[in-house]
Amino acid sequence: MGLLSDKICLVTGAASNPGLGHAIAHCFAAEGATVIATDVDADGAKATADSIKSAGGRASSWRQDVTDPDGWQATLGRIRDDYGRIDAVVNNAGIVVLKRLEEMTLEDYNRQMVVNMTSVFLGTQSAVAMMRETGTKGSIINMSSVAALVGVIGVTAYAASKGGVLGFTKAVAAETAPEGIRCNTIHPGMIATNMNKQAADENTDEYEALTSAIPMGYMGPPKTIGDAALFLASDLSSYITGTQLVVDGGMINQ
Ligand SMILES: NC(=O)c1ccc[n+]([C@@H]2O[C@H](COP(=O)([O-])OP(=O)(O)OC[C@H]3O[C@@H](n4cnc5c(N)ncnc54)[C@H](O)[C@@H]3O)[C@@H](O)[C@H]2O)c1
């Protein structure tokens, strides 16, 4: 019996490899979950599902733009038709635009708010509705960042979106706790994914300084976030809701 045996779990932003969604999807499947991997990059999401199946797990995939309300209805409707319920949703898809305040445009700001924050509102609202309808005591995991908790240079708009995710998740947790529906955030520090690779290539000096300041001395492997999400999705965390789980190699030490 795995920690997520018989659980139906949706992971958004699951295409990028190395990426957090990809790692979370693999950690869930390895513990017995049936994983639905979605992403705007349909081929990448399929590659994630295929790699899970090759490893002996259960997975399917399709294209989903997390900013699209109709896409959320379609995704959860399909999951309901295929599996009857949803046990865990990881709202993981996200983007970052690294610019200092004076260079950040309104378009940069709005795009990050919609992809990182509005998507979490849409995903959480649809998931809670389906969990209520089916009487499922599910787990919702929203991907925030250490940037929601401490000041990080170059990410003003991103930090606003991730801070929004934190406050939103706590309010949802307060509303849904009586029904046994749990809602928590994960706050990764610097994890070695495509997002960070691209950002590091564009901002070499700032990234070197940030990496060398991590007390554990290295960027986190994506699986460390997969394991944190596994804990929050499973019954190991059955009495935990509204919490913020920081996974950062001691970077902010709180
Ligand atoms: N990597 C880190 O160090 C780090 C740190 C803190 C927080 N995070 C957060 O973790 C999450 C995953 O980050 P990552 O490092 O794996 O990034 P990544 O860029 O490697 O992967 C992000 C994935 O999201 C998908 N995506 C982007 N916009 C989308 C949309 N509108 N609809 C659906 N999918 C979309 C991309 O196609 C990609 O597959 C993000 O929310 C990110 O902000 C990452």
Q: What structural keywords apply?
A:
seven-stranded parallel sheet, 254 residues, binds nicotinamide-adenine-dinucleotide, alpha/beta, Rossmann fold, 47% helix
In words, what does this structure look like?
With 254 residues, the protein is of the alpha/beta class. The chain has a single domain (8-191, 222-238), classed as Rossmann fold (3-Layer(aba) Sandwich). The chain contains eight helices and seven strands, in the order E-H-E-H-E-H-E-H-E-H-E-H-H-H-E. Strands 3-2-1-4-5-6-7 form a seven-stranded parallel β-sheet, sandwiched between helices. Helix 1 runs parallel beside helix 2 (42-54). It is globular and about 50 Å long. The mean pLDDT is 96. The chain binds nicotinamide-adenine-dinucleotide (NAD). Nicotinamide-adenine-dinucleotide binds at residues 12-13, 15-16, 19-21, 39-41, 44, 64-67, 92-96, 115, 143, 145, 188, 190-191, 193-196.
Question: Which stretches are poorly predicted, pLDDT < 50 over at least 5 residues?
Answer: none
| Span of the ends, CA to CA | 34 Å
User: How large is the count of helical segments?
Assistant: 8
Q: What is the helix/strand order?
A: EHEHEHEHEHEHHHE
Shape: globular
Average predicted confidence as pLDDT: 96
**Class per helix and strand makeup:** alpha/beta
Number of strands: 7
- Largest sheet report: 7 strands, parallel
Name the CATH architecture.
3-Layer(aba) Sandwich
CATH class: Alpha Beta
Stated plainly, the CATH topology is called Rossmann fold
Provide the gyration radius in Å: 17 Å
Strand order of the largest sheet: 3-2-1-4-5-6-7
Number of domains: 1
Q: Beta-strand level of the residues, as a percent range?
A: 5-15%
